[in-house]
Amino acid sequence: MTEHTHHDHHGHDHDHNHEHEQEFITLVDEAGNETLFEILLTIDGQEEFGKNYVLVVPAGVEEDENGEVEIQAYAYTQNEDGTEGDLLPIDEDSDKEWDMIEEVFNTFVEDEEA
Fold first, then answer.
1. Do the bridges between strand 84-89 and strand 51-58 make them parallel or antiparallel, or are there none, so unpaired?
2. Are the CB atoms for 97 and 49 separated by under 8 Å?
3. How far is CA 2 from the centre of its chain?
4. Cα–Cα distances in Å, from 33 out to 26, 27, 30, 40, 41?
5. How far apart are CA 91 and CA 17, in angstroms?
6. How far apart are the first and last CA of the chain?
7. pLDDT-derived band of residue 98, with 50, 70 and 90 as boundaries?
8. 84-89 and 23-28 as β-strands: parallel, antiparallel, unpaired?
9. What are 49-90's pLDDT values in tens digits?
10. Residue ranges of region Disordered (predicted)?
11. What whole-number distance in Å separates Cα of residue 73 and Cα of residue 98?
12. pTM > 0.85
């Protein structure tokens, strides 16, 4: 009697690391210095605020002694042709936007640690 081992290659071999694919973006500051940032998270705020948000950290930066890295949040608009537009600073007085970003980020962190 022969044993049939059934290798199912349809569905169990998926690479589950897609969501961890690192995306990078280069930002230029006022002085013209280019810094490479890693995109941590993009947030769709279209319905509520008419724009999307992106959270970035400087690429290759080690956490400091408190285990913290400076995370920067920007709003970005999409151009009508679907390409990403400019990153815009988020209005510091816009509590609603910051609250939403913080909430999404906290959820993201909890998911990462789970």
1. unpaired
2. yes
3. 51
4. 10, 8, 7, 21, 23
5. 34
6. 45
7. very high
8. unpaired
9. 998 999 999 888 877 788 777 889 999 877 777 766 778 899
10. 1-21
11. 9
12. no
Three-state secondary structure of the chain: CCCCCCCCCCCCCCCCCHHHCCEEEEEECCCCCEEEEEEEEEEEEHHHHCEEEEEEEECCCCCCCCCCCCCEEEEEEECCCCCEEEEEECCCCCHHHHHHHHHHHHHHHHHHHC
Query: CA distances (Å), 84 to each of 49, 59, 105, in order?
Result: 17, 20, 21
Cα–Cα distance, 64 to 79 (Å, whole number): 36
Residues sharing a CB contact under 8 Å with residue 92, sequence separation 6 or more, in sequence order: 98
